[in-house]
Amino acid sequence: MVSETPNLPVVHEALLPERHPQHDLFICDVADAVLKDVMPQMEHPFYSLSKKPETSVRRYEHNGQWLEITPSVKGLATIYDKDILIYCISQIMAKLKAGEKVSQRVRISSRDLLIFTNRGTAGKDYKALIEALDRLEGTRIRTNIVTGDEEQVDGFGLIDASSIRRKLGLDGRLLHCEIKLSDWVFNAIKSNDVLTLHRDYFRLRKPLERRVYELARKHCGQQAVWKASLEILLKKSGSQSPEKLFRQMIKNLATSDHLPDYRVEFDSQKDMVTFINRGTMKAAEPAAEAWMGALDPDIYGDARNIAPGWDVHHLEREWRMWLGDNEIAPKNPERHFIKFCETWFAKRGQP
Description:
The chain is α+β, with helices and mostly antiparallel strands. It has 3 domains: about 1-15 and about 220-285, no CATH class; about 25-205, no CATH class; about 300-350, no CATH class. The protein is built from 12 helices and 14 strands. Strand 2 (about 60) and strand 3 form a beta hairpin. Helix 10 (about 300-305) runs parallel beside helix 12. The longest helix has 16 residues, at about 80-95. The two termini are about 45 Å apart.
């Protein structure tokens, strides 16, 4: 049986201490970046909740969707390895918000990443970072989960490639990493399939606590309440623990009441888990009403030539929302859309 660190009598604070409460000035932009996670990953159990290597193939099916995960010989990517992806996604989203060019290849400072994710910066922490990259790159996924307007059913990884630059000398400290995100992850980011996470996510001690928070964030969101049976929650979590142990973990989580954004209640009679919004999330800004007029279908070919590499339907959605934000009703929609594509490509280049 795979160990997922069941709760024992608590003799320490429920949350990890914040290791870097005062961030270095040169990484303030990183430390203050809004945490982002990809919604399809929050919905489905992609990651191991065990601190021990898992090397068996997993397959999940739920409501007509299926997911098969094949780990490398070094084990399945863990929910702690996922911190690297959250960091990368957060940086990309911050750049998109600022109107900057983004690409699948992300270069990151190793130290910035460790501080951002509330980890230590000792030699063992840099070594753990390399091992995490190996697991992320080695984990292969086959699924029919839809991201954006695409359905991907072939195999893919969480990251396609990584390179590491190391300082020579006694400490062997990492200087920076370069990571190429997979098409699947990048498509989800471009389609804005992301949600904001609470900063205390990185202070949650146990893998299951992180996973339960992700599920609550996805399903409850900013609603007042979300209820799920223990059976469904166990299935969605990807936990390998027997139901009896999982039930005790949820009971302990409800008792400790330290989950960010949501209070957890457990009904032993109905075997039902209830998540109650604490009201700590920033309210989402109301979306502007998109322009609803029709485009000549022939214009999409021109758009592909103007902005090679970009999904023209993604560009169309961006254009329509931009029109809504600025309360514009174009007199010549096709010409206006092409001009928008030209400007988009000039600012961002190829994806």
